[in-house]
């Protein structure tokens, strides 16, 4: 027992050891950039094995079923490449990525689930401009997510896949019941609130959802952003030129607060153990509106199946200056990747016409290629979203622009504000503090 | 068993005039015990019942009994989570790690307790101090050390990391058991011509058996439940262990409470079995550890 | 299977290998024995514990994001630490958890006492109290997430017994979440304490107790001066275990149960460390947090030992 008193001394000893060891710091040195050859890869010469890290595989049900088929199609074109497609846990993906970059060992192809993640690890990613063909540059949308400064031109650290964001869905049946129009398109946030109150008065739950993790607040925030600010302001925010404490930023949190104050959300919004419960309830017809995905999961496809195609309505945030839209993810190659040519072959294939079409058929991911039209039998909701994304000005959702650490702080803080336990100013200060810390 | 119970009763209720106040107090105490026990048994019941019912059924009465039983969740846990493979993977890491820990800590504790050598106490103190290292603090350095020897995504890498993480505690615990072995026994054995290893094997180890079992049980429980190191050191799916697999499944967008519960329920089976078997040794072992 | 003359057998004649035959070589070999026994363990510890720990200490003085080489910045991380609200908050939560140490000791002690006095059903209770120890943090986190859900069984129970007014969002109210977490960790670790105390109680010297009773000591006096006094080393042992556990091992539970929330209300230092290292990519700063944490653990356990020892002297 007495040894415990020695503990402190020993710790000091360990500390001294550490200071001593500081002399022999390990510097592994960067592996060379290794510029690839331009143009599409040649299936005859590309060979070897690649490891693909994917957080949506075995996470989104439809995508999970699609992955083996997509990989098979790739294999048909590149018979000499072996693909190990690894599903990684969503919640701890950042930890795994951090470890991989720190140890300079990991996958050949890495999924970047959003622009924030790409930015966080950009320093460890291969610049792909030498490999990207002019045809790809022209046909694909969403380059601004994989390029510093959110530009379409510039060094690309990944290749964008699919088009997605969030949509407000409503149940036309319940709207009819509450005496609301079934072609409901709110002109202002107040409009939306009043509709919610009308639903509530009719005994209908206006919104369903779950916000234990704060994701829903994040989505509400970025839906509200373009109704107040421009995309230039979004970039200014992401680059630190527009502080979070600015009144223009504060106003973007007000729509959700307005709905919360009007009591339009469910009571257990902040504690539902699993956030998809809200979607299930909407699909069950237990709520009139939900903030859902525009593709893939908790989207028109699921709702159409549960409620009937004719009962699923959609609207955009009222008075938007532009529409939030970005790739569902992007594929990147880490600098440490061992088989970069095969990795590029994989990415090139997945961004091609065949894979893009397959992806839509299997998962409802809207094609990110301009030259891939929707099939003739695509449901009206898919067409409507595609039209919106094509005809209206679009830009990356604001929450995707800012570093993920910042949105994380925002998510935890927003829950406190929504529950009236913290002021909006305090929250914005805390978010700004995180932002400063990330960028120091 | 029965005699013990009778004796127990007798002790609990001394024959003297039972005053009502004392009796009331005793009932109150018993109720507290019972409530606490209910709180520890209930999770098993809750997870089991949630695993055997549909989500709709759960939402109707979360705490109660299922309306109708379904094995759908269990089946899906096997087919979608591949819980059998996860369990096997965990065992393939945890069992070797526990064995390795037992061997290493036996040798080390034996040396530290029964031999005199320079810096002996310092070594003990360092071992004790290492217990205070938060595992989360050294993941990255350990990850790099494992990378350097090319053991990333190799079970051996995780086994070694696990052994290192639990070694200070194991040596410390075992040392306290070894102190209870009288030095004379060892001297006698050595005089009989037994070498140090032979003495350890045939004299010391039989005497510290409860300690060994305690150690193995605790290490098994701890390592079976470990998450972070397994996540970082085994990054591929074929080797993925139970807790990481379940953690991954928890992030799923189509998950239901039922499947997660079924997975959790099954993840508890090996530790529960170990606990059932070694309950008594554990009870004995922990005290010796505390008293020395 | 003939025994070679070199293999010593336990039953063999002592004279054959008596001390008389000891040579200088043999003595040297004997001196080297502990080294051989220790070598494997020490090698593993040095490789995967001491050097990584030293590495962490070195990194604490650097700015490192994991990509470029660590940049030496001296004490800057530690200066930042002092003005870091998050760190202070997390540390405060840890210290609050430690502050309930008396409860953490008293609860398992009382339970062990009841079991020791053979409360009806004690075997079952002994088994039941240990059950949570077997459960993984993931199981406990997910279970309590569901159990304490506003529409979950616990609030249901409260409503059923007419205490519906008490029902609340247990893991989501800033003032309540931390106490809830503390209750859960006490509940989780209880079993070990009960087992330790129980076996210690059964090893007590009964004569002392009898002597005290003959001297006319009250039950409380016996408990306090005779039994508690004998139990002190065990209590000390338990206290140390809790201190170390609470600083190093609750992160997985908090991670699954509350993710440090609501806000930052249940984040502990090891949770913060993980967040800084893996979510924020500040590996150097996270190492500084780790170093600070280890210093705190050292001081707190030293303090706990000193306190418990000091009281013993006072009583004597």
UniProtKB/TrEMBL annotation, chain A:
Say if the entry is tagged with keyword Signal. yes
For this UniProt record, the keywords arranged alphabetically read as follows:
Signal
One short Pfam name that applies is SBP_bac_1
Give TM regions: none
User: Signal sequence: where?
Assistant: 1-21
Question: This protein is called what?
Answer: Extracellular solute-binding protein family 1
Q: Which organism is it from?
A: Patulibacter medicamentivorans
